[in-house]
Amino acid sequence: MTEKDYNPGQKQKKAMKKVEAADKMKKNIIKDIEKGGKVPEKIAEKEEKMAEKIEEKLEDKKEEKKPVQKKEPVKKDEAIVNSYNIPISTKKAADICRFIKGKTIEAAMAELELVHKMKKPVPMKGEIPHRKGKIMSGGFPKNASRQFIILLKSLAGNSTVNGIDDPVIVGAVANLASRPFGRFGRWRRKRTHVKLVARNKKEKKKK
User: Fold this and answer.
1) Distances (CA, A) of 70 to 62, 73, 187
2) 46 and 133 share a domain?
3) Nearest 5°: CA angle at 18, between 12 and 19?
4) Residue 32 CB contacts under 8 Å (≥ 6 apart), including other chains
5) Does the predicted model carry a pTM greater than 0.85?
């Protein structure tokens, strides 16, 4: 075929005729089905094969699915809370750690609430005014006690999750954190890392 004989519109016309013929076939089949006629055998066979393939795929997926095994919660011996860069004084945090160590979480929270209300002082070291009672020098660190109450609440939650029935504060440590400069670099902010550890009271007695 030479370049002169080539006619691109002729191919388009043939393709359009094939599409029109297929549309007419579809319309006629739909009319026959609506009137109550039967579906042509070729189309029925294709539909049956497609349905069989879909059923096979669904069966394969059902076989692939394995029963999910529920894992039992692992019981731990201790509950830990790590908090970083708390905006409190490291010295006051260390005094509170000594104050709550060896007590139950509920008792420690109750006593810190009294400290926050300025009804019970925390024993402190250094040149601090003396308080009435058995202690000598002490203070009422309001901000630090409020932060420790939040930490003790999270420690109580962790102990319940770990299956500790009667938790006692075994470890309480306060460390100096990185202290960023304040506005215009005139002073440095107070920052402290705190770690609290609670264990079961019975286990503590055994040890």
Assistant:
1) 20, 9, 54
2) no
3) 90
4) 38
5) no
